[in-house]
Amino acid sequence: MSQLYEDDECYQCMLYVRFIANSNKWKCIICDLNEQGSEISEDYNIIWGRYQLPCEHEVHIRCFQKWCKINEMVGCVLCGPIEQVESNRFCNQCEQYGHSRCS
User: Fold this and answer.
1) Backbone dihedral region of 80: left (phi > 0), alpha (psi from -120 to 50 degrees) or beta?
2) 90 and 39 in contact (C-beta within 8 Å)?
3) Which helix (H) or strand (E) holds 60?
């Protein structure tokens, strides 16, 4: 990946989203793109995968990272800032909100 590509994203925001691995139709609230919900490759998911915020709005992870970086905050386009507290963090191990990772 180029350095420019990495510099335009927020990585702190990754603590507050969960990956959704299903093939239902959905729409990114940032870029407004309707996704048809087809099965996609793992490489595609890294940039354009479906993620859900604590407020349950859904975003492409690349759109979310860029939006957070530009706006200098972790938040939702529609709901506003996401309070950066443990109760809003998503644990990928147990797949629950409320802590950053299981012990």
Assistant:
1) left
2) no
3) strand 58-60
Q: Tell me the residue length of the chain.
A: 103
The model carries a pTM of 0.76
Mean pLDDT by 10 residues, the chain (103 residues): 53 84 83 73 64 92 91 93 87 78 67
Q: Identify the three-state secondary structure at position 70.
A: helix
Residue with tokens 């959704």: 20
In the chain, where the domains are located: 3-97
84 and 100 in contact (C-beta within 8 Å)?
A: no
- Three-state DSSP state, 23: coil
| Nearest partner of 21 among 61, 55, 54, judged by Cα | 61
- How is domain 3-97 classified at the architecture level of CATH? 2-Layer Sandwich (3.30)
